[in-house]
From TrEMBL:
This is Disulfide oxidoreductase. Transmembrane segments: none annotated. It comes from the Bacteria.
Length: 106
């Protein structure tokens, strides 16, 4: 069983470039059952980081992704798995499942 750490970076306010997209929290809550159901052979650990509020216990990876979001290089919500960029902005199922298939499936 492969352990996969899933982190969603987001904010309470919907991203200005992501009109009609789900909120960051909605994305975080949607990903959990989706990944557990689609990939039962993996163990997922989920974390949500508010890019405007969470300041403690952040790794260097977390701080770099948050900085890139604040500098408009990336959009939120942003999803990483095991500290690797997966997708940002309007997150879609295919983006996430392709990443898992490419990186964690034998």
């Amino acid at each position: 069983m492969t352990k996969i750490s899933v982190v969603v970076y987001g904010a309470d306010v919907v991203c200005a470039s992501c009109v009609n997209a789900p909120t960051s929290k909605d994305t975080f809550e949607w990903l959990q059952p989706l990944l557990k159901r689609k990939f039962p052979e993996h163990h997922f650990e989920f974390t949500y980081i508010d890019i405007n509020k969470d300041k403690e216990n952040l790794t260097d990876h977390d701080e770099q992704f948050i900085e890139r979001i604040h500098e408009d290089e990336l959009f939120y919500p942003l999803v990483t798995m095991n500290d690797e960029y997966v997708a940002d902005g309007y997150i879609q199922t295919k983006q996430v499942t392709r990443f898992i298939d490419a990186h964690f499936e034998n």
